[in-house]
């Protein structure tokens, strides 16, 4: 069983005391590389039953952290090495050691580009708390009590009791609710931020990711305004040759609702593995704000209409830089991050 394997490897790690850098490197190759034991255990974790995932997930993450800490501890010791016995201060005429210049994270690069595009359209940037109550995260947005998103298997609840649920937000739509509650129309803002979902970590999904949502509420706002805004956004971000299509969909907080696809940026619409040979890739959901949501937030739905949209920054970054594994964004691998030195911090 997975639990027994973790216990066995934990005992091995506790006994591990390398006597040389070569032994430490063998430890890294055994546990920490892409085909190592840690990655194998996470792959096996995908097959664990749902009722065991919470406990085993915590144990597995603690195991991974202990492996990394053990490696870093001895890596620092071997890196320091014995002090040189040579006397003297060396040749002062030699050039000094250079400083490594960092760069922005790829998610930060794409987020900045998205924000700049919408700023040119008159959108402001709004932010809100990552820990939310039931009203702002669910009830005000038309999520009924029996909706799957309210289930412990889909949402990280910090405190769950009748009428007072506290959870890590599942979307930045909660910022839209707070904006409408505390202001007066018109509203024209985007809401970038981190959100959380109770999902198994894989190449295509993570327990946290980043969103950019948008809201425009005013008199006479129509679906045509929504389409033209998103057309402009896509062409600015991916190029003027990018094609767009809308597919009817369902979201509790918008009506009508749609999924928006763009022509695949890799194969240019001809068909490839990324777009599953359809030529299209879904990038966001959108729709007209449901009148019930407006009323819940104190906005007169007989006087005002609006549209909303939301996209995952990771999905956009995948398309822009052809990245196929979401886990790379949060592993802090310098070899991966050093590829994005187009803009300095």
Please give a structural write-up.
The strands form 2 sheets. Strands 1-5-6-10-9-8-7 form a 7-stranded mixed β-sheet, with helices on both faces. A 3-stranded antiparallel β-sheet has the order 2-4-3. Helix 1 (2-15) packs parallel to helix 4, helix 3 runs antiparallel to helix 4 and helix 5 (106-120) packs across helix 10 (313-321). Helix content is 37%, strand content 20%. The radius of gyration is 25 Å and the shape is globular. With 345 residues, it is of the alpha+beta class. The model is unreliable at 83-87 (pLDDT under 50). The chain contains 11 helices and 10 strands.
SSE layout:
Elements: H1 2-15, H2 21-31, H3 37-45, H4 50-80, H5 106-120, E1 124-125, E2 131-133, H6 134-137, E3 157-159, E4 166-168, H7 173-182, E5 187-196, E6 208-218, H8 223-238, E7 244-251, E8 254-263, E9 280-289, H9 291-296, E10 305-312, H10 313-321, H11 334-337
Parallel strand pairs: 1-5
Antiparallel strand pairs: 2-4, 3-4, 5-6, 6-10, 7-8, 8-9, 9-10
Helix pairs in contact: 1-4, 2-4, 3-4, 5-10
